[in-house]
Every structure is written in structure tokens, then in C-alpha cells.
């Protein structure tokens, strides 16, 4: 999911609404004869941009409906579910004023695009904000391997955060086993312990619980953020975070 795409779609939706209104007026005044499928077809063929604008409007309506469904699901689940150490890596003051949750996939391009913003916010607010980082691998076996490794890395304390951001900062097309090992060594993880913890049943249990929670929240892609209880789908900016934490 990409927030920038949604912004463009919103602009297209406005244009589509205006164009559709013109079509409805034309139909009502008889300028577009609906009695003839052929003539209506000819009219639409003569105005091909209408099809794209109608699709943009439909896409935006679908996105709005998905966001509403996710927000309602999150409200019903309650924020405690997202700060459960059984599903998330949780850090920061327990009674912090602001809360920040991210569902991500290490092989998600949009997650990587937004990672500098997330990292900067984390470094600035790790003392006054409650964070929850939750794996939601959706891009196949390599994503699942990366998620299992990261879940195992949680058992080595705050080294997890360095490992997490190191993976997000990779410019490679895919996080494979070699990249996982390189970043584990670079961030000072105990490799024998990490290798053993990856194989523990608790690791799979945590990952399955996280994926189940994402589905319960009706999330369909990554990244997804929940900031102060408000759902934000797609890439996020500093301005977005400021708006979500305002008040």
C-alpha cells in the first residue's frame, strides 16, 4: 500500500466525480441516450479519460472502506493486543502519552522507503513514546525467514532494534540468508544463540500470533501504522506523524 498513490487517487477521484456529474447531467438532458447501448458505448469511447477517472474514484472508495474497516477492527481489538510481547517487540515507557505501532515486511519496498522517517522518530522519541514493532511477512519464503530471524533476535534485548533498522536500511532487492547473517554479525548479535532461537517453537508461535493479529485487524498489506490508536496505511511522513500525534 502506498500513501502517495492514495493522494493521487484522491485528486483523480475529485476529477472523476466532476466528470461523472457531467455525464449524469448529459444523460438527464438527453445528450447521452441511455436507451442505446451502442450510442452510450460510442460516447464512452469518445471520452476515454472517463474510464480512468471512474476507476480512480472506485479505487479511492475501496481504500476508504478498507481503512474504515481496519480502524473499526483496531478499536474493537483494543490497543493492548498490539503491545503484547507475545506478538510484538515492545519498547518505551509503559505509560507514555504517545504510542506507535508498525506492521512491516523486511522485503516490502514501501516499508524501506519510510524507514528513515520511522528510525528518526524512534531515536527522537524512544524515551517518551511506547513502540511496538510487529512482523507481517507477506512476500514469501525470504520474508518469512527474515521475520523468524528478527523474532529470535528479540531475545537479545536492545540489539534487536539495531538489527531491525539495519535490515530496513538494506538496499538489496531481497533480504536473503547471507544478508541476515551479515547484519546479525554487524549489529553484535550472538550468532549461535540466534541460530538456536530461530528453531524454537516459541519463535513460530510468536510469528503466527502476529500474522493472526494482522488479519484480525483487517490489514492487507504493509506498512501499516497505528499511532495513538489511529490507523495509517502505507508510507508515512514526518507531517503525517505530527498530525496523528497532535492534541
- The CATH top-level class label of the largest domain: Alpha Beta
* Strand proportion: 5-15%
N-to-C SSE string, H for helix and E for strand:
HHHEEHEHHHHHEEH
C-alpha end-to-end distance = 27 Å
Word description of this protein:
This protein folds into two domains: 1-55, no CATH class; 80-244, Glutaredoxin. 59% of the residues lie in helices and 10% in strands. Helix 1 (3-28) crosses helix 3 (49-77). A hairpin with a 2-residue loop joins strand 4 and strand 5 (230-233). By secondary structure, it is of the alpha+beta class. The protein has helices at residues 3-28, 37-46, 49-77, 109-125, 141-153, 159-168, 177-186, 191-198, 201-216, 238-244, and strands spanning 89-91, 98-104, 129-135, 224-227, 230-233. Residues 1-20 have low confidence and may be disordered. Strands 1-3-2-4-5 form a five-stranded mixed sheet, sandwiched between helices. It contains ten helices and five strands, in the order αααββαβαααααββα.
Output the keywords.
alpha+beta; Glutaredoxin; 2 domains; 5-stranded mixed sheet; globular
Summarize the structure.
This protein has 247 residues and is of the alpha+beta class. 59% of the residues lie in helices and 10% in strands.
Task: Summarize the topology.
Layout: H1 3-28, H2 37-46, H3 49-77, E1 89-91, E2 98-104, H4 109-125, E3 129-135, H5 141-153, H6 159-168, H7 177-186, H8 191-198, H9 201-216, E4 224-227, E5 230-233, H10 238-244
Parallel strand pairs: 2-3
Antiparallel strand pairs: 1-3, 2-4, 4-5
